[in-house]
Amino acid sequence: MAGTTICSDTSEAVELCKAQGLYLKPIAKLTVCVQLPKLKEMGKSISNWEVMEKIKHMAKPHSFISLKIIKSTMEFMRLEGEAETKVEIKAIIQCLDSRTIKLSGFPEVLKVKAAEAKVSHPSQHDWDSFFRDAKNMNEMKPGERPDTVHVKDLPTKWFSHRKKDRLSEQVVKRVFENFGEVRCLDIPMLDPYRKEMTSVKSSGLQTFNYNTGITFDVYVQYKEYISFVKAMDSLRGMKLLYIADDEEEKAYTANMRVEFDKTKHLSDKSIKKRRMEREKLEQLEREREEKVRREREEEEKRVEEEKRKKEEEEREKERKRIEKIEKRESRRQAREEKRRLKALERKRLEEEKQYQMKIQMEERRFLIAQRKLESIRLLGELFSRIKAVKVSSDLVQREIELEEERRNQVEEEKRLKEEMKKRKLEAKKRRKEELLHHETELREKILKNWKEKEEKKEEAMRERLRLRLRGKKVLKSAAVKPSVSNMTTSSEVIPAPSPPDWRQRGEEWIREEYENKVLQRVNKFKGHGKQKVPRFYKSLHNNPHMEWKKRLKRKEVEMRRWKEWNEWKKQFLYWKHKFSFPVPYME
């Protein structure tokens, strides 16, 4: 069993629970300190195994249950040993204390000191000071005062029923009731939900092991303080002894750790909290079981459905198999029928073959006569082809002549196109000069009209002044003579530069006409107050600006039609040239 050792001496055993075969035995430990020499050479070391063997040899005839090194430095080495009884420990101390040992390779002797080891166990002062200084403890409430003992690493098998190899809470309670009446007992390993409880996980109290069932932890809460003190004093410096009831009566010992509870593990609040957590987990467990049950039922239904589908598939396969057999039988009958028909056909073909042989003989005679006739026709065809070759050579010569004639026609057309292009340029230039001359005439005419209007205005003004000043002695002419330098004669009109094209020049002409003729008349009517402009100047038919726009549009249409005509002419000449060659006649 893990964590237990065989005990050969039970003389110091103290009864704990005789019915279970449990006893308490004092822990007999000692510490051995060996003074080490200074290492003067590099790479030289002291063997721990040799030191332990020397100590064991010095302790004879007594022996150690266990001997281990607990601390090792450059100056000393500290070992801890355990014996069966306290008497044996004292004898071993007398054998080892103030003795010396000598190691191989070292001239110096090593001093050895031995003393009884102190056992780590809480005292009354420890729990009194803890609960006195703790601020979150209330000594009036159980679990928050020194009344709970926490025992760890107890062997599970020793606290089980004789017949059942399973830990029993009643057995544990009966064992610890030897120190006094137990108020409450908690074994975390027996609670299946303890490792899932959030309260336990959050408080950091997982000092017990859930994974293995070899050892367990237990919290024992006593009703009386004296029972708690009695338990702590009885378990101080003790280990658990188990004597089996079999014929050999073997004895085993196991070390256990005893502490007082510092975490309020068995307080009413903690118990209630764990109970609530347990109820929640039980509810979740029931829900999981219900879910598993539903899933199992669904799985059974699914399996049943699959089984039903499988049976249907089997029936379908059987039906298809029968159909296949029927089809195979029908195909066999069809093959037999076909074989019979084929035999009849073969017989009929043999009869036809004999009849055909007679026909072929007649055909062969006919073929010989036909070949004679074809040879005659072939000679006639040969002579006709010779004639055709001669005619084709003549046609090739004719094609060459026609090609030469076509080239001449193409050159003539190019020459005509060049002449036409020159005529167009001359006509365009002539038109441009005419437009320039017409523009100059219009300018002179507009200037002449303006001069006449100005002279009429001046004459009317002189007449009005003359009528006003009639009867006065001094007469001054209010008329202003027109300056010769400001007037421009028709001979001084500078012709406008030639526009880049006819469209740009036409737009300039339209703008001048519009400003000189239309805008002057409109401005004249604007000065008469609310008098409206005559509709004459708003109409589209008499508006010179719109007239010139129409002229431009007509010119664009003419140019577009001219381009379409040229394209059509090119296509016509192309197809005319392509189909102008005569097709030779073949006899």
UniProtKB/TrEMBL annotation:
Pfam families (alphabetical): RBD_AKAP-17A
The residues forming the signal peptide are none
Name residues in a coiled coil.
393-463
Q: Which domain of life is it from?
A: Eukaryota
Instruction: Locate the region Disordered.
Output: 277-321, 480-500
- Would I find Coiled coil among this entry's keywords? yes
Bias class Polar residues marks the residues at 483-492
Q: Which UniProt keywords apply?
A: Coiled coil
Name listed for the protein in its UniProt record: A-kinase anchor protein 17A-like isoform X2
Report the source organism.
Answer: Crassostrea virginica (Eastern oyster)
Q: What is the lineage of its organism?
A: Eukaryota, Metazoa, Spiralia, Lophotrochozoa, Mollusca
In the UniProt record, the gene name given for this protein reads LOC111126732
